[in-house]
Amino acid sequence: MGQKPSVTLAFQWDAGATSVEAVYDGLKHASQNLAHWDLIRASDDDHILTCMFQTPACGWLDHITIHVEERDDHIVTTGTSYSTNVCPGWCGCLRTACGGLNAFSDHGQNIAHLRQIVGAAGIEARPQEFLVSHVGLSKV
Predict the structure, then answer these.
(1) What average pLDDT score do residues 123-127 get?
(2) Are 128 and 74 in contact (CB under 8 A)?
C-alpha cells in the first residue's frame, strides 16, 4: 500500500435545512449524471461514495471518496480526491515514456472535481460553511 498526493475538502450544512439522505442522494445522482464521472461504489448504509473522474482533455484518472454524516446539528460532507497517475487516454504513452521522472501536478483539478460534484448535487440548501481544505498524502 502506497501513498498519493491528495486533497480533502469538507462542507457543512445546517441540519434543519437538509438531511444526510438528501445530501447523499444528490451527490450520488450527480456522480451518475455528470460528464467524466463514474460511480464505482455506493455504500448507502454508511453514506460513502467512491468515484473515478476522467479528465476531459487527456484522460487522467482521479479517485474520489465522498462521505456524508451528521455531526451535532450539521450535515458534513467530506471529499478526498487523489490522482491515480494513470492516463488511459492519448497521453498515456507520454506518461509511460516519462514515468521515471515522477513529476506530477494536478493544477488544482482535484479541488475542482470536489467543488463540481457538490455544486451539481442539486441540494436546495447552500453549504453553510466551508470547513477544511487539506493537501497531503492518502493511503491507497
Answers:
(1) 65
(2) yes
What's the CA gap between 105 and 127, in Å, rounded? Answer: 28
Q: Which residues have C-beta within 8 Å of that of residue 137, sequence separation ≥ 6?
A: 3, 4, 5, 6
Q: All 3 cell numbers of residue 14?
A: 445546517
Summarize pLDDT for 56-71 with one digit per residue, the tens. 877 778 889 999 999 8
Threshold 0.85, pTM exceeds: no
C-alpha 59/C-alpha 77 separation (Å) is 26
SS3 state at 67: strand
Q: How far is CA 66 from CA 76, 82, 104, 114, 140, in A?
A: 10, 12, 23, 9, 15
Instruction: Using CB atoms within 10 Å of the CB of residue 47, give its burial: 0 to 12 exposed, 13 to 18 middle, 19+ buried.
Output: buried
Which residue type occupies 129?
E
